[in-house]
Design a protein that fits this description.
The protein has helices spanning 2-14, 21-36, 44-47, 51-58, 64-75, 77-83, 94-110, 117-126, 132-160, 162-179, 185-190, 192-204, 245-249, 268-271, 292-309, and strands at 19-20, 210-214, 219-222, 232-235, 240-244, 310-314, 338-343. The chain is mainly α.
Length: 350
């Protein structure tokens, strides 16, 4: 991750103009996933292209047909199985499959053990688990695009909230001075306010708008209405449940002035005052996002590197309010988010 961060900083230093936040974020997470998960060099900052982004674009999720297949996958999974339809539009994109097979074969040939995701895939293959490409695809979707989405909106919120940005930079400067780096595990662990910023961004801009679950055991839920006279709602086994994440994240019962960007909500003492399920940015329960720690870590290290060297501000090309794409499954807004990165005049030197 450190090398990818340094490539990103060099890229920002060499581009003295406004930059699209989503493109920067996709370059970073693309290179980082390639390096950390698949043991390859991403080169998205040096070559101007990203293999991961090419694979992302090859999926049919940006078309109307892609939206239909994705919706069917969520609401009618049995029908998709019957019709042999993948919610991605393809079972596994050919280019992605070739990429992973190449990484696995290369590792098998060299017999190097790196204790990374490729080693996990090799172990799956040895055990006869033919779904190892599916595991790789899951990691790709979780570690690449969704992380880029969160990084994009975190950069935006930092630009829109200068006081938050200054407080984060102060924390980074102190930690960097103490550890003489921001890239060590110890240094990252001490950046608690920066992590609170990430969680607050995810509260306001959740990657997933709702969670879908299947009821495994019949149960009775108390009615949410005060005048219900003890009435219950019966949930039968097999019922599909949809949990409105965005609505919960903006509920005044849990968050005072929910539209305000306030990272201090996620200080430990404030978290403990709320029910655990009042924040569902990574889901919850047995099916909570398995890549949560990786996602937070890579976003955290990227933000630390950027804020150590640059101040972030909104470029005039960014038009508010941001609008969602009507039939696009991409989580990024229709408006392009342009940001300016100006070199800090005072900073802790590494």
């Amino acid at each position: 991750m450190e090398n990818v961060c340094k490539e990103m900083i060099s890229y920002l230093n060499n581009h003295k103009f406004s930059i699209r936040a989503d493109e920067l974020a996709l370059k970073f997470t693309g290179s980082n996933v390639m390096t950390c998960a698949y043991g390859m060099v991403g080169e998205s900052f040096s070559s101007g292209t990203c293999v991961m982004n090419e694979i992302r674009e090859s999926m049919s999720m940006s078309t109307k047909i892609g939206v239909v297949t994705h919706t069917l996958g969520l609401f009618c999974p049995n029908l998709c199985k019957l019709l042999n339809i993948s919610y991605l539009g393809k079972q596994v994109p050919v280019s992605f499959g070739n990429l992973i097979r190449s990484a696995v074969k290369s590792r098998e040939r060299t017999k190097n053990v790196s204790n990374d995701f490729v080693d996990f895939l090799i172990e799956c293959k040895r055990k006869g688990d033919l779904s190892f490409l599916g595991h790789a695809m899951t990691f790709f979707l979780d570690g690449y695009e969704t992380s880029a989405y969160l990084l994009t909106y975190t950069l935006l919120e930092l630009a829109r909230n200068p006081s938050v940005q200054v407080e984060a930079q102060s924390e980074i400067d102190v930690v960097c001075k103490a550890h003489n780096t921001i890239y060590s595990y110890g240094a990252l662990k001490e950046l608690s306010y920066l992590e609170d910023i990430i969680y607050e961004t995810l509260r306001i801009h959740p990657v997933i708008k709702f969670l879908n679950r299947s009821c495994t055991k019949e149960c009775l839920l108390p009615s949410p209405y005060q005048d219900s006279d003890g009435m219950f709602v019966q949930i039968k086994k097999g019922t599909q449940i949809f949990i409105p994440v965005e609505a919960i994240h903006r509920d005044t019962k849990y968050y005072h002035d929910p539209k305000k960007f306030d990272p201090h909500r996620f200080k430990q003492e404030n978290r403990s005052r709320r029910p655990k399920q009042s924040f569902l940015g990574f889901g919850d329960g047995p099916r909570i996002c398995p890549g949560q720690q990786f996602a937070v870590t890579q976003i955290k290290i990227a933000l630390a590197a950027i804020l150590l060297h640059f101040n972030i501000s909104i470029n005039a090309k960014t038009i508010f309010p941001l609008r969602k794409k009507f039939y696009h499954l991409s989580k990024f807004p229709k408006n392009e988010i342009w940001l300016d990165f100006s070199v800090r005049t005072t900073q802790t030197k590494q």
